[in-house]
Amino acid sequence: MKKYFNLSASETAEDLQVDLSTGLSGKEATERNQKYGPNRLEGGKEKSILAMALDQLKDFLVLILIVAAVISILLGEELEGIVILAIVVLNTFLGVYQENKASNALKALKEMASPHAKALRDGQVVEIASHEVVPGDVVILEAGDYIPADLRLVESINLKIDEAALTGESVPVEKDAKLVLPEDAGLGDRINSAYMGTVITYGRGKGVITDTGMKTQMGNIAGMLNSSSDEATPLQKKLDSLGKLLGIVCLSICGIIFLLGWLRGMELFDIFMTSVSLAVAAIPEGLTVVVTVVLAMGMQRMVKCNAIIKRLSAVETLGSTTVICSDKTGTLTQNKMTIQKIYDGKKMYDVSGTGYSPAGDILDASGNKKAEAVQKILECVLLCNDAIYDSEKETIVGDPTEGAMVVLSHKAGMVKDQWDKKYPRLQEIPFDSDRKLMSTFHKIEGKTVMYTKGAPDELLRRCVSIDLNGTVQEMTEENRQEILAANQNFAEEALRVIGAAYKQVEQVDASFEAENDLTFVGLVGMIDPPREEAKDAISVCKKAGIQVKMITGDHKITATAIGRQLGIVEEGAVAVEGREISEMDDEQLRERVKTVNVFARVSPEHKVRLVDAVRANGDIAAMTGDGVNDAPSLKHADIGVAMGITGTDVSKEAADMILTDDNFASIVRAVAEGRTIYSNIRKVVGFLLSCNIGEILVIFIAMIAGMPVPLVAIQLLSVNLITDAFPAFALGMEKEEPGVMDRHPRDPSEPIVDKRMAIAVGIQSIALAIGTLGAFSYGYFAHQDIDAARTACFLTLVLGELLRAYSSRSEKVSIFKMRIFENSYLNKCVIASLAFLLASIYIPLFNPIFGTVMLSFDEIIVSLVLALVPMLGGELAKKVTNR
Question: Membrane-crossing residues (predicted)?
Fold first, then answer.
């Protein structure tokens, strides 16, 4: 990509072969359109619904289930086969539904392109669709216009462009077409250029299009969005690993059973059906559905935390977050310029209140209200001002710097509309980037007064006197040095400084020469302030072992100051600029991100590299942002978090989570919710696994002992899908445990079934096998009735699981120390499961379907007693694992 910001306007025009006075001819524009293509952004290759479905069917466990279903149908057991296939179809549908809701970031990017542009063609200004502009087109720029494509400015008159969405710059950038910039100028420093999708807030200009479509900076972002793939989250990876392990165990045991049956001379049909039963027993068919529903319910709870989750698995990812990479403007700060300091030539004053709220006061060093002491300063910045302020809605129309001055005056009871009517503007000398000043003329108490505001150094050069507490005296060198020192102090605090002055005139003279012999009245210092709640949220993050890193396109001094106020950086810590990042290789950057918490003047590419470096260090990275420039890094992060109010459509579409209140503190609340959900998913996985492994043990031990299969496939499916899955749903709804944000994030590489859970699952599985095999053995040997024995086994298994569900509400707290029936969801699920169990046994219509029969009184009593064994096994597991 050619660096036109490093060329003069005439050199750019020569390179692009265009006459700046007449523009391109219609014929040349058509030829270039054919050569370069339309000024549109290209999308990545979209995945078809069929491709999504096939991806779902590639899962190892799903393939085992399909094989089991086919074998069942071929052997005449159609009911089992159809039920298994129904499970596969349901899981596939849920997976495709989630994937089909994938990001539409590119569509939003396309919509950001301006619909029309004013181009110079054949010497005439014509309005054309933005997609028709071509490299070499000369375009006319006016306030309110969107920039149609990347361009080199050739003319700029008081031109300001809002580039916050692209660079993160918190205030509109003053442009200067005359400058030629060095080759290494960063994106945010290219003040002789303008970029697609940004908007002109002030002034006018002219530019020559240098790049269109995918060659633009916006196109570069679109390309990064296309190239970034949706990776599996930590939970997905762990569940996939667990599934493969279960599948291998299942196939191994099936192989052993098949071999044993063959050696014993069993019928091939019986061997196959036993293998199918084992496959069904080994695979937790309800796990995927249960986890999906738990995450979906977690999404609903997240809404109460002002967080909208777009991707189910992102809920869990939040809980394992170890690093939050946050944009500054609008995320950690309010994106509302606020005056915090005033200097009147001798004294400093603090201004309370933040944002565009009129609440606040002007206070002296002792904390006393002193608005009257700075009355002249307030007059100047209020009357010499074009911003429109709505104090009720707390909104500003116009330049945010001027908006901050209007809000300041409102805090002193000076309402702009009233003052404009009382002292109407007679004439003005508009701001321009050469003078860096603006002046307006007003009739004040019968006298004509010119108020001037602007850059302190420029203003001070034109001042010959100073107004101190209403007394005008000659400006001395001592006064001048004190003012410069105050200006330097403001700058070191990352405050944007504006000077104010006035003079009485005999008549209105709107020439630049009028802005001399001024009387200095003071300085105001403003900043885009940190969100009040962000500091507390960052403190909570530190306590929870989560690092917070600020990544911004803003200036280094400003970023460091805000970082210090928020507690992100300590005194003496340094920030790293985008230029330095460009000079580092990936390995150097990986080491640097371990110790540096503030990165300034970064481009979209830098943000992506920083997020990748954090992840390469083994951390789970959350990236927050609100601008177009944040979209690629939002996609690259483990979880992207966009702002719902100030965020662009592009950032919202690229993100996994959207904050409806734009509040950094909501992220921390969402992290706590994510940790709770992960803890609940562990309970679900542990509960379901111990049941499945217990079922395998029941069938395997019975086979080894030469007994018939204790449970048929349809009974196992019933247990796995209904009497296990329903209580598992309820376990996923457990409340947050105390101290969830007082512990450090778990190791992202830690398996979901760690050593502690493996031991607990082992103990509970053995207890389950003992209870159910005991019931089966009693029915089989005492009554010599295989159907009754299987029914007793089925009853004991279901009751045992329902009782164990209450024990599984906590991995640490004993059932005898908790409020047993506190989880109302679990109570309802247990009642529903019991109703199913009773119906399957005592309604004759269901007996042939589920292979059940009525039980004798003694069989029921034995089953009820043995159903306590799995719950007691769960309590024993807690004792063993929490020693």
Answer: 57-75, 81-97, 245-265, 271-296, 684-705, 711-733, 758-782, 788-805, 825-843, 849-873
Phi, psi values for residue 173, rounded to 5°: -95, 130
What are 197-249's pLDDT values in tens digits? 888 888 899 999 999 988 998 888 777 766 555 555 566 677 777 777 777 87
Structure token pair of residue 407: 């809000």
Q: Answer for the pair 751, 312: CB distance below 8 angstroms, yes or no.
A: no
Instruction: Kindly give the interhelix angle for 268-282 and 60-74, rounded to the nearest 10 degrees.
Output: 150
pLDDT of residue 109: 39
Please report which helix (H) or strand (E) contains residue 326, including its range. strand 323-326
Question: Using one digit for the tens of pLDDT, what is the confidence trace for 637-654?
Answer: 999 998 877 776 667 777
Which CATH number is correct for 307-333+531-662, 3.40.50.1000, 3.60.15.10, 3.60.20.10, 1.20.58.220?
3.40.50.1000
pTM: 0.68
Pairwise CA distance, residues 852 & 715, whole Å: 9
Conformational region of residue 265, where left means phi above 0, alpha means psi within -120 to 50, and beta covers everything else? left
Question: Is the CATH number 2.70.150.10 carried by domain 4-42+107-219?
Answer: yes
The tokens for 855 are: 């039980």
Report the percent of the chain where pLDDT is more than 70.
91
User: Region 192-198: what's the mean pLDDT?
Assistant: 91
Q: Tokens representing 227?
A: 């190239």
Which pLDDT tens digit goes with each residue over 345-403?
999 999 999 889 999 999 998 899 888 889 999 999 999 999 999 999 899 888 889 99
Beta carbons within 10 angstroms of residue 422's beta carbon = 11
CB 317 within 8 A of CB 638: yes
Backbone angles phi, psi at 498, to 5 degrees: -125, 135
Query: What is the distance between the alpha carbons of residues 383 and 402, in angstroms, rounded to a whole number?
Result: 10
Active site residue 327: yes
Residues of each domain in the chain carrying CATH 3.40.1110.10: 338-527
Q: Provide the CA 880 distance to its chain's centre, in angstroms.
A: 40
Two tokens, residue 350: 């603090």
| Predicted confidence band of residue 479 (pLDDT cuts 50, 70, 90) | very high
338-527 belongs to which homologous superfamily? Calcium-transporting ATPase, cytoplasmic domain N (3.40.1110.10)
Q: Which of 104, 128, 105 is nearest to 117 (CA)?
A: 128
Question: In which band, very low, low, confident or very high, does the pLDDT at 547 lie, cut at 50, 70 and 90?
Answer: very high
Q: What is residue 95's predicted lDDT score, i.e. its pLDDT?
A: 60
Which pLDDT does position 344 carry in this prediction? 94
CA distance 860 to 841: 12
10 Å CB burial of residue 821 (0-12, 13-18, 19+) is exposed
Q: Which helix (H) or strand (E) holds 474?
A: strand 471-474
Q: What's the CA gap between 781 and 443, in Å, rounded?
A: 111
Q: How far is CA 510 from CA 121, 184, 513, 514, in A?
A: 36, 40, 8, 7
CB < 8 Å & 24+ apart, contacts of 841-845: 841/791, 841/794, 841/795
Going by C-alpha positions, the residue among 235, 242, 222 that lies closest to residue 111 is: 222
Topology given in CATH for the domain delimited by 232-301+675-881: Calcium-transporting ATPase, transmembrane domain (1.20.1110)
Which position among 189, 327, 619, 626 bears the catalytic label?
327
Distance between CA atoms of residues 346 and 469, nearest Å = 9
What's the sign of the alpha-carbon dihedral 504, 508, 513, 515?
Answer: positive
Residue range(s) of every CATH 1.20.1110.10 domain in the chain: 232-301+675-881
Q: Write the DSSP assignment of 518-544 as a string of letters.
A: EEEEEEEEEE-PBPHHHHHHHHHHHHT
Identify the top-confidence range among 95-109, 230-244, 355-369, 705-719: 355-369
